[in-house]
Backbone:
């Protein structure tokens, strides 16, 4: 097949009436873990079905105006929810912490900043990881495979972006110098490993709302089309409830079409099931499965980490920052924002890994621009907000708005539980964790140096409250050496609560490959690590099945 531009690609998803009752393998979820599993399993010659709860977005279909963005949110709390269950941005409001998720074919890859960093080597020295992760020598090869497909690169023109220059000026107060991190964005036209001709990034700043250019190396432009080309069948708007095991060992995946579709449940049989629905989704499915008798470890739901995340703002910087996207097609001609993240600083500590901080300058999506003045009114900035309503956010006070994404290390003491068949995150005292004070101090210093005011959360006092929020949920199905310490082994195989009489320690054919297996904070954006651990799990499965693969 001749190479195709992202805007010319046909839809990957098939109608639900094409769903078969049985496959060799069923993959639940379609983010980095699910996309990699689908690609690798289909390359092994297996019949594969991919089940995704969200809808499919083609290049050019992501929200570019505020009315579209408003309809792209689903928000849920303990006793209420609003928005479509397939909306792109899934906001979970919790008593102790909020979680921001992507929902769609491609999972979080659709709406993340795309920053691809490998953690400090000390992260993997933590005994929270199973020993083979440190000892079998495959992790480097797994990272290499992930990099080959996701192609992270630094923007060669990052230093020209106003938000990078603003970070460089302010970061002197911390005694550090910014650099351009690698992001999964194509900065020049190229043919990707899936045979798709991706155009160059236009530096529109809209990575976090979905790339309408086709330059971001998302899962739907890399692993998923490869899976489809090798025979995988992909289905969207299908919510998985739980899995059960037949006496003969095969698995049954129980799912229902999302509201608005026929509400009959469906059952799909498979000898291999790969759970890749993310920390919240995968843990919820396994919790439901355990409540129905699946003998999963008692550690299920534990070791939830927010990855030491914080998103914060600086208002009123003296110099223009240009940290609001212009979109594609551009809403302001001639204004380059850069990728969502063009620069970052690293506050290092050779003696104590937990003290290290990564701070990235960011850009807010262009579709959010009309709402920004309103968001900042509750923080006493009415005058500046009104000025921006008149002049637009690309001039006036909001031209100096800074957005920061910061990552550090937390205690991974959160716990995911089922309450009345709904997932809940429990982490009493999370907001008072020392990591947030460290981040606040560093960010406030940066903002002061830029001449602005630090705004930790423009929605504090509203429905968001003062709870911390994370866009990097990790854990819940943590990997470990045995079921007394975790839920899966180093290969992603799900532990039995207790080994069988014949010594079998895992549930044959049931795997987890997503961020839920990570047993601690990473201190960097997790996408590359999730991808590498998923590639590593598939390398082991390929050996087990004695299957050829040219990944």
Residues:
């Amino acid at each position: 097949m001749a190479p195709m531009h992202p805007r010319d690609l046909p839809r990957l998803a098939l109608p639900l009436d094409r769903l078969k009752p049985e496959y060799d393998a069923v993959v639940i979820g379609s983010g980095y873990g699910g996309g990699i599993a689908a690609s690798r399993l289909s390359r092994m010659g297996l019949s594969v079905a991919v089940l995704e709860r969200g809808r499919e977005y083609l290049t050019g279909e992501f929200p570019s105006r505020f009315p579209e963005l408003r309809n792209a949110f689903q928000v849920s709390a303990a006793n209420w929810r609003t928005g479509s269950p397939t909306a792109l941005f899934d906001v979970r409001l919790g008593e102790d912490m909020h979680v921001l998720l992507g929902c769609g074919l491609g999972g979080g890859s659709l709406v993340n900043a795309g920053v691809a960093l490998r953690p400090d080597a000390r992260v993997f020295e933590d005994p929270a990881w199973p020993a083979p992760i440190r000892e079998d020598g495959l992790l480097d090869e797994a990272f290499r495979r992930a990099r080959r497909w996701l192609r992270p690169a630094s923007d060669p023109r990052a230093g020209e972006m106003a938000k990078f220059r603003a970070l460089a000026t302010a970061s002197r107060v911390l005694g550090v110098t910014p650099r351009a991190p690698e992001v999964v964005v194509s900065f020049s036209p190229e043919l990707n490993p899936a045979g798709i001709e991706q155009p160059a990034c236009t530096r529109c700043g809209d990575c976090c709302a979905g790339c309408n250019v086709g330059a971001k190396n998302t899962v739907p432009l890399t692993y998923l089309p490869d899976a489809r080309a090798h025979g995988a069948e992909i289905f969207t708007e299908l919510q998985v409830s739980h899995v059960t095991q037949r006496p003969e060992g095969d698995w049954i995946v129980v799912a229902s079409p999302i509201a608005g579709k026929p509400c009959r449940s469906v059952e799909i049989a498979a000898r291999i099931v790969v759970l890749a629905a993310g920390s919240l989704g995968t843990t919820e499915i396994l919790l439901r499965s355990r409540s129905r008798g699946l003998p999963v470890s008692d550690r299920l739901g534990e070791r939830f980490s927010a990855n030491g995340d914080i998103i914060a703002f600086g208002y009123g910087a003296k110099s223009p920052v240009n940290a609001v996207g212009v979109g594609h097609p551009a809403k302001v001609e001639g204004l380059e924002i850069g990728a969502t993240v063009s620069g970052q600083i690293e506050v290092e500590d050779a003696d104590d890994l937990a003290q290290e901080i990564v701070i990235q300058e960011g850009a807010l999506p262009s579709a959010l621009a009309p709402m920004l003045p309103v968001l900042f009114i509750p923080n006493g900035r009415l005058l500046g907000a009104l000025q921006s309503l008149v002049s637009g956010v690309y001039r006036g006070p909001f031209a100096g708005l800074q957005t920061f994404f910061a990552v550090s290390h937390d205690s991974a003491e959160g716990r995911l539980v089922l309450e009345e068949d709904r997932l809940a995150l429990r982490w009493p005292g999370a907001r008072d964790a020392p990591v947030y004070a460290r981040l606040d101090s560093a960010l406030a210093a940066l903002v002061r140096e830029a001449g602005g005011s630090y705004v930790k959360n423009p929605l504090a006092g509203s429905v968001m409250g003062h709870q911390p929020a994370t866009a990097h949920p990790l854990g819940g199905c943590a990997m470990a050496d045995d079921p007394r310490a975790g839920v899966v082994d180093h290969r992603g195989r799900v532990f039995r609560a207790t080994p069988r009489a014949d010594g079998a320690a895992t549930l044959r054919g049931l795997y987890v490959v997503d961020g839920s297996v990570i047993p601690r904070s990473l201190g960097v954006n997790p996408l590359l690590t999730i991808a590498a651990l998923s590639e590593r799990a598939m390398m082991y499965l390929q050996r087990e099945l004695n299957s050829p693969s040219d990944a």
